[in-house]
Design a protein that fits this description.
heterodimer, A: mainly alpha, 0% strand, elongated, B: alpha/beta, Rossmann fold, Alpha-Beta Plaits, 2 domains, 6-stranded mixed sheet, 34% helix, 26% strand
């Protein structure tokens, strides 16, 4: 008789289903974060290296040009780097959160089928969605935090603006990640999906969301991209809250509502799709 | 292993772990499982035998409470999986057909994270992992990545993972498909130990020898229906003869010569590559064939197996 047999209590005594039914989302998040931390060195190197490169080229290079052209006034009444910071943070938030919903979801359904093994336990499809989102938000905060360190080091933002900037960018991360989650669940295989998203969604979204210049500068027929883009909403919100950019109250409410709405629609689409795909 | 008082969860009939009545699963117009009835008792090792596409895996998914039935009744551990999926799954162990271990995590981490999904404590799991690794003979691979394991090791790890919550029913979907003979025998040994210690096993397989080794009782499925039910020995007794004589005359001649064999044995089965003569005396049947002046290229007398039962029931061989 091996030790496994001597100590056997049986699931009826050992496992209380109420526990995973209540905390399952966190167990999934814990599992995802454990997987994520396998790449912690790359995560930190990328999280710090990317902003350094960005700030050196765009922030300082183009910033010098802008500040000079405006007679030292910068944009929106603040130095160019300060104007740029909320947009960079929103993008970092989106990138970080997106990585943690798209790859794990394809891995979970296609490459490794891990979601099926999780769903074979007491964990429900809905808890898998929530857990993946929780982990994605954890990554989002890590990414934003690292970016903020660099922004602070470059003197782009004051320490006091960290809470509002973090909040504004996390909103963008949440809204976009939930939408991406609900799209990724339909992917049967990679099929260049990530390349398409990168080139035709992320890049335009970043370019036309009032990132480098105020959205109003764009011709009206291009401004719609900003309106549907969580990057613009987050950026404009961040500008208002961090250095007091002039944004009317109703628009501030819209800036919060749009990412929240995107997030809600994303999650509500993802829940039944996860349930369907896991039961196939 | 599981103590007899551990089945308090199934109040109505504590001895019945699974009850399926008219269990049906349709995908659009396609009927994958067509109104089947069966029961599995506590401590029993129950097999679902049949070729690919027979409806075994679909039945398993419904028992595993991850796929909902279209019609009929199903009770697992005394509960209806439509209403109590997570509660039932909390007490099951599932070993899927395809290993779905996490490739980023180490061997021990796979067991740890899986245990966490049942809400088990880290401290308890630490000790449990040692036991499971010993059981799966993977102690030395504790810190390996799962990609570095052989097929048999991965399978054993998947089984160990399925045991982390000390399940009341362990479900194994084609546990040894794709493994070499040695790895299969190691696995059978492990499963046999579980069975000996009273864990209820539900196994699908299309290997006869596996079913004969592991199953107390089995259902033979084909096209979503149950063709027969019983212990391997009973099924062989009922649907086949004691012995089988296999004769080969070369693929081109089998069919033609078969007509000359009528009357020898209880029944003939003409396959493309050989003729099977069902009889209680294989050597005697062979003597009669030779007496007719026929000269088979090869001959073989063997005991009847579940393969013969399946052939009799469906007119097809399991390997199709």
């Amino acid at each position: 008789m091996s030790v496994i047999e001597r100590n056997w209590q049986g699931a009826a005594t050992l496992v209380n289903p109420a526990k995973p039914m209540r905390w399952g989302s966190f167990y999934v998040a814990e599992f995802r974060i454990r997987g994520m931390l396998k790449w912690w060195d790359a995560l930190i190197a990328f999280g710090l290296g990317n902003p350094v490169l960005y700030l050196l080229s765009i922030g300082i290079g183009i910033g010098a040009l802008v500040n000079k052209g405006t007679g030292g006034a910068g944009l929106d009444g603040v130095p160019y780097l300060t104007f740029l910071a909320p947009a960079l943070l929103a993008t970092a938030a989106i990138q970080g959160a997106m990585d943690e919903v798209t790859f794990p979801t394809i891995e979970g359904f296609v490459w490794n089928k891990t979601f099926y093994s999780i769903n074979a336990t007491a964990i429900s499809a809905r808890q898998i969605v929530n857990g993946v989102m929780l982990a994605a938000m954890a990554r989002c905060f890590i990414q934003v935090g690292l970016y903020e360190l660099i922004l602070l080091a470059f003197g782009a933002i004051p320490l006091s603006s960290l809470p509002v900037l973090t909040l504004a960018s996390a909103l963008a991360g949440f809204g976009f990640a939930a939408v991406m989650l609900s799209v990724t669940v339909f992917i049967k295989d990679d099929d260049g999906f990530f390349a398409i998203v990168g080139r035709f969604v992320l890049t335009p979204m970043f370019m036309f969301s009032g990132t480098y210049f105020p959205l109003a500068t764009l011709p009206i027929y291009l401004q719609w991209i900003g309106w549907i883009s969580p990057v613009w909403h987050s950026t404009d919100l961040g500008r208002a809250l961090s250095y007091g950019a002039d944004v009317p109250l109703w628009l501030l409410a819209v800036h919060v509502a749009v990412p929240v709405l995107l997030g809600a629609v994303g999650l509500l689409t993802a829940y039944p799709q996860f349930e369907k795909r896991l039961s196939e | 292993m599981p103590k007899s008082d551990a089945s308090a969860s199934s109040a109505a009939s504590p001895e019945l772990m699974i009850v399926a009545k008219n269990l049906t699963k349709r995908y659009g117009d396609f009927v994958a499982v067509d109104g089947i009835n069966f029961e599995v008792k506590k401590g029993e090792s129950f097999g679902l035998l049949g070729p690919n596409g027979a409806g075994k895996s679909t039945t398993m998914k419904m028992i595993a409470s991850t796929s909902q039935r279209t019609d009929g009744e199903l009770s697992i551990l005394g509960k209806d999986p439509n209403d109590h999926g997570p509660e039932i799954r909390a007490h099951l162990g599932v070993v899927p057909q395809q290993d779905n271990l996490d490739r980023e995590l180490k061997v021990w981490e796979n067991l740890m994270t899986y245990g966490r999904f049942f809400g088990l404590k880290n401290s308890w799991l630490k000790a449990k992992i040692d036991e499971l690794l010993e059981f799966a003979q993977l102690e030395e691979k504790r810190n390996s990545k799962t990609d570095d394991l052989s097929g048999g090791m991965k399978r054993r790890l998947t089984i160990a993972r399925g045991l982390v919550n000390e399940p009341e029913i362990l479900m194994l979907d084609e546990p040894t498909t794709g493994l070499d003979p040695q790895a299969r025998h190691i696995l059978w040994d492990r499963l046999f130990r579980l069975k000996e210690n009273g864990v209820t096993l539900v196994i699908t397989t299309h290997y006869m020898d596996e079913a004969e080794q592991l199953c107390d009782r089995l259902i033979v499925m084909d096209k979503g229906k149950i063709m027969a039910e019983g212990s391997p020995a009973d099924l062989i007794k009922e649907y086949s003869s004691k012995e089988v004589l296999e004769v080969r005359f070369g693929s081109a001649n089998n069919k033609e010569i078969a007509s000359q064999l009528e009357g020898i044995g209880e029944r003939l089965e003409v396959l493309p590559d050989r003729i099977l003569v069902y009889t209680d005396n294989g050597e005697g049947a062979l003597d009669r064939i030779l007496a007719k002046g026929l000269h088979p290229v090869t001959t073989l007398v063997r005991r009847s197996s579940l393969e013969d039962v399946f052939l009799r029931l469906t007119g097809r061989s399991l390997a199709d």
